[in-house]
């Protein structure tokens, strides 16, 4: 990077700023207004009832108030066997008449039997008639015509409602699938069929029903134990705070204990390999080489060869030497990393409000997710009912063509295709709006990604500004400005919305491409074209790497924006070159920070998890009486462990941002100042001691 002109009077985050990336800011505001407009249009056209209520063959909702179907809340399929046909996959609609009913059938019956006995068994006819088309009451009409016109179903089978639809009431008896204790049924067309045919038609319903009963039990467990779960999460929060506060005293100790532990374990491994190698001396067959015995599925065979243990010993010796050499040559940089971690803990101690900033980010992201989900549902349900010709005859040329139910009977379709009907197919439309719904869904997803990335960027820039004001305070804590977090938030919103939106836009574009690639991969799963799959895999890998790199660049660019108030591109370039000039320090600090924070997350989640396990399994005598009776004790236990990990992650993400900010400030400090009276260092005394009293040249890494 080219040398930069430094302001000799620089004293921390600049207050006399100007707006950056104004064009991007204007575009961002216009896009948000457009997003609100899209939401309003979707809200006007959409109707979530289409998702909540099932729709019958006449395009009417089952259970909708103030309609004929008000008390008929369940959808009944005339011939559920047709739901197993491939047409269902194409049209997402079962090619049989669907009717709203008040309750599902509870017995086996066929139209042939009921019609034959309607004179002396009228009760059976009256029961069957409620599953026929409304108003049909003509048992004299021939069976062939009734079935052709689909006035009535050819059969009814015992069913129960699920997701407001009638599905066969399956149960297993001695490992055999039955419906109402029967394994066969009459299909109403003169055939006796096996119950497994119904199972194919209602595939997966049994599993879903089982899942639903488990879901009810899990909900009960949450209802009983939510109080204790919240206590567990509160303990996790206190442990996270304690870990961060104690890091200023324990960062070095924890790191060196771990490093020497690893060296010790590898050392023991080398000794064990040598012992095995020596022990096998003279044993017949142990001097054979791996090449001699070839490939063996039983791994134990290799453990009887001296050559195997010699190879293990050489590998472990290599790893041991590399670790020791890295410690010798990088010892100073490791000391700087640990000092920065301690400094980060000190900074958070002075600006405690930063720890609770992730709640703001969480609320912003929750709003984005909610708005996106609601808009997506309204977009998906914004359409007029589309009716299509449903013909019983496979050769009917009008099949699957759109039709108008009001004028259908006057057309010649009914003459050419006897029994053909104009039934509801799906929601859609021919207007400009309906044609571009897919584009609107893509736009909805894209703006959602942009807004989420902006919320994260705003958080990073705000925290960076607060921690930078700590570092550039010459006398700590006396020179730290009042309300550093609020001042930083105000600066980010007022001056740098455009820059943050620009960084978020670049990331959102890459993420949208990744989403599209995942969608294509999912769609092409069935194809056997290995080249296409390989190409997709390469593209997914490249864009994953690009996203990781951009996140790293953006994060450091936001820190520079928070300090200097320059535009996104300048800040990103300066941050990148500054990091490249200190590339070894970056690598060491990154790994040391990652390790200690990962250790912290495991300690918090593990500690609270063990405590919760002993509590919920009634192994703590003091609280044995307090423990609620649960269906599955793992429900609250898993919730507490995952929740604790997320709580720790929230707190530690602030700490990681703090360390990154202090590191960039530290590198700037080294390049700007030389420790003289005219140019004093702003770093803490501990960092100054590690670097030594000598004058440091800007190029020293």
Automatic annotation (TrEMBL):
The chain crosses the membrane at residues 21-44, 226-246, 253-271, 309-330, 350-374, 447-474, 495-517, 529-546, 595-616, 637-657. InterPro entries: Choline_transptr-like. GO terms for cellular component: plasma membrane. It is found in: Cell membrane. The keyword Glycoprotein applies. GO terms for molecular function: antiporter activity. It holds the Pfam family Choline_transpo. It catalyses: choline(out) + n H(+)(in) = choline(in) + n H(+)(out). Keywords: Antiport, Cell membrane, Glycoprotein, Membrane, Transmembrane, Transmembrane helix, Transport. It is a multi-pass membrane protein. The keyword DNA repair does not apply. Belongs to the CTL (choline transporter-like) family. Choline transporter. This is Choline transporter-like protein. It comes from Piprites chloris (Wing-barred manakin). The gene is Slc44a5.
């Amino acid at each position: 990077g080219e040398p930069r002109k430094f302001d000799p009077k620089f004293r921390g985050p600049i207050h006399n700023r100007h707006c950056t990336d104004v064009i991007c800011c204007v575009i961002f505001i216009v896009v948000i207004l457009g997003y609100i407009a899209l939401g309003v249009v979707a809200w006007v056209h959409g109707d979530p009832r289409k998702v909540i209520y099932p729709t019958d063959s006449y395009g009417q909702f089952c259970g909708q108030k103030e309609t004929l179907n008000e008390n008929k809340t369940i959808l009944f399929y005339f011939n559920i066997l047709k739901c197993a046909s491939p047409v269902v996959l194409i049209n997402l609609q079962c090619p049989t008449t669907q009717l709203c009913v008040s309750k599902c059938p509870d017995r086996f019956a066929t139209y042939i039997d009921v019609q034959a006995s309607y004179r002396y068994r009228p009760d059976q006819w009256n029961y069957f008639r409620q599953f026929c088309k409304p108003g049909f009451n003509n048992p004299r009409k021939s069976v062939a015509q009734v079935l052709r016109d689909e006035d009535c179903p050819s059969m009814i089978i015992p069913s129960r409602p699920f997701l407001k639809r009638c599905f066969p009431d399956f149960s297993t008896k001695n490992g055999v699938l039955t419906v109402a204790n029967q394994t066969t049924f009459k299909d109403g067309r003169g055939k006796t069929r096996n119950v497994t045919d119904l199972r194919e038609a209602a595939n997966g319903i049994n599993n879903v029903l089982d899942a639903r009963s488990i879901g009810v039990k899990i909900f009960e467990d949450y209802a009983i134990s939510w109080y204790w779960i919240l206590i567990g999460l509160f303990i996790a929060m206190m442990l996270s705070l304690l870990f961060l506060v104690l890091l200023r005293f324990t960062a070095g100790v924890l790191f060196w204990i771990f490093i020497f532990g690893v060296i010790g374990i590898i050392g023991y491994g080398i000794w064990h390999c040598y012992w095995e190698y020596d022990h096998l001396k003279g044993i017949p067959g142990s001097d054979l080489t791996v090449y001699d015995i070839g490939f063996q599925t039983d791994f134990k065979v290799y453990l009887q060869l001296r050559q195997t243990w010699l190879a293990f010993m050489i590998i472990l010796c290599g790893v041991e030497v590399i670790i020791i050499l890295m410690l010798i040559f990088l010892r100073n940089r490791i000391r700087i990393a640990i000092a920065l971690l301690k400094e980060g803990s000190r900074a958070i101690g002075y600006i405690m409000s930063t720890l609770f900033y992730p709640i703001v980010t969480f609320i912003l992201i929750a709003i984005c997710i909610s708005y996106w989900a609601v808009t997506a549902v309204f977009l998906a349900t914004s359409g007029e009912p589309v009716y299509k010709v449903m013909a019983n005859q496979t050769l009917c040329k009008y099949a699957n063509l759109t039709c108008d139910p009001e004028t259908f009977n006057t057309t010649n379709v009914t003459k050419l295709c006897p029994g053909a009907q104009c039934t509801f197919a799906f929601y859609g439309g021919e207007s400009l709006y309906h044609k571009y719904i897919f584009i609107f869904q893509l736009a909805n997803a894209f703006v959602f990604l942009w807004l989420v990335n902006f919320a994260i960027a705003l958080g990073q820039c705000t925290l960076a500004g607060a921690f930078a004001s700590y570092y550039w305070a010459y006398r700590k804590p006396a020179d730290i400005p009042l309300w550093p977090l609020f001042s930083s938030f105000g600066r980010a919103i007022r001056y740098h919305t455009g820059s943050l939106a620009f960084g978020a836009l670049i990331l959102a574009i890459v993420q949208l491409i990744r989403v599209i690639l995942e969608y294509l991969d999912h769609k092409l799963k069935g194809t056997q074209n290995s080249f296409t799959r390989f190409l997709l895999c390469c593209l997914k890998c490249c864009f994953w790497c690009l996203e990781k790199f951009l996140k790293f660049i953006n994060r450091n660019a936001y820190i520079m924006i928070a300090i200097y108030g320059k535009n996104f591109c300048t800040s990103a370039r300066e941050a990148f070159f500054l990091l490249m000039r200190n590339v070894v320090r970056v690598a060491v600090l990154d790994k040391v920070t990652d390790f200690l924070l990962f250790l912290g997350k495991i300690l918090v989640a593990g500690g609270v998890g063990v405590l919760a396990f002993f509590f919920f399994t009634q192994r703590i005598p003091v609280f044995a009486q307090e423990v609620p009776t649960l269906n599955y004790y793992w429900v609250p236990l898993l919730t507490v462990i995952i929740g604790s990990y997320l709580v720790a992650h929230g707190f530690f993400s602030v700490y990681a941002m703090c360390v990154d900010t202090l590191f960039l400030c530290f590198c700037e400090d080294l390049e700007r100042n030389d420790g003289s009276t005219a140019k004093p260092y702003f770093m803490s005394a501990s960092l100054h001691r590690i670097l030594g009293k000598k004058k440091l040249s800007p190029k020293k890494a």
